[in-house]
Each structure stands twice: as structure tokens, then as C-alpha cells.
Automatic annotation (TrEMBL):
<dbReference type="GO" id="GO:0016787">
    <property type="term" value="F:hydrolase activity"/>
</dbReference>
<keyword id="KW-0378">Hydrolase</keyword>
<dbReference type="InterPro" id="IPR050300">
    <property type="entry name" value="GDXG_lipolytic_enzyme"/>
</dbReference>
<dbReference type="InterPro" id="IPR029058">
    <property type="entry name" value="AB_hydrolase_fold"/>
</dbReference>
<protein>
    <recommendedName>
        <fullName>Alpha/beta hydrolase fold-3 domain-containing protein</fullName>
    </recommendedName>
</protein>
<feature type="domain" description="Alpha/beta hydrolase fold-3">
    <location>
        <begin position="34"/>
        <end position="195"/>
    </location>
</feature>
<dbReference type="InterPro" id="IPR013094">
    <property type="entry name" value="AB_hydrolase_3"/>
</dbReference>
<dbReference type="Pfam" id="PF07859">
    <property type="entry name" value="Abhydrolase_3"/>
</dbReference>
Amino acid sequence: MKGALRNPAIQPAIVGGTWYPKLFQPGDEQKTVILHFHGGSFLWGTGRQSDYGIPASTVLKRIPATALFVQYRLASDPACTFPAAVQDAVTAYKHLLDMNIPASNIVISGDSAGGNVAIALLRYLSTANSNSLPSPSAALLWSPSVDLDSQCDPHNIDLHRNNKTDYITGFTLVWGVNAYIPKSVESTDPYFSPL
């Protein structure tokens, strides 16, 4: 890993993933593949059927594709703060390329915290990557977390007009942000707050 993803204390690791609607098969290389990163405030959630089966099937009803939902490392483990999740995103993207899936057939996707991971992957591919990995064809971002700096006041978040319908409270967002961003890094860094 290069640039912001290089960290002697946090190294790339093998992580799992769940394929939807079925396991990718050799010969399917010309189909669109969605590489998705789930939400969960960087603390919880998986891409498994129990957590994301319904959203996956809903998206795939509208987009003819196969999807890989990545089980990226979560900041609920103190050893897995940034850049662990983004390292996992790069590893998953490389895995698809190693399966001979052309980058032009890959769509990067993420919701909430996973949207932040997806944007960080795209940032890495366009800056620190030195063109060693090709860019994907597109990105689908579902309510991505794009400003982790201003999200750090739970009282302001809970005063927002959407507070009554938000799935995650302001205090939960702050907990996730504080767990994910190492103390040595500013929350205004473009890897966390791309706006």
C-alpha cells in the first residue's frame, strides 16, 4: 500500500465477502460486477445475507449485475482503525481484477460509512495508486458519509430536521467516527471528509 494507506501497525488482511445473487462463475467476466461496502458507522454490519440480503436483491432487481459485498474490518476492533477498511477495499478491488474482470465492468458502491470507504478507494485509485490499478467504470453512493469532521458534534446532529427518521443517532455517529479515525490524523483529511 502507498500513501495514506501505508501504516506499519495496520497491514492489509484477507477478508471475506458475500456474492449476490450467486457466486461469481468463470465465464461471467463480461458482466457488470458491483463491489459494495456496507454501512454501519464503521463499527458493525456485514455484507452477509442476514444484514444485506434485502438491499442487495432490491438493487439487483434494477441493475443487471453480480455483486460482491465486502466484509471489511471494522473499527469496533481498536486494531482496525483507518486505514484498515480502505486497505480491504483495495484488496477486494484487486481480487476482482485478478479474477479477470475488466475494470470497465466494475462499479464501486457503498452506503453510509461504506460510501465513505468507497470514496476513499476511488481517491486512492486516482491519486496514490500511480496508475498501477485501472479505474472502475462507475460509482454508486447511497447516502455516503462525506463530512466526518462536522459530524462530530452529536447535539448538532440530533437537532437536524431528519433526526426523527435517521437510522443512527448523533452519538452513534460520533462513536463510529472517533473509533475509525486515528488520533494522529485530522478528521478534515480528504480520506475522511472528501467534501
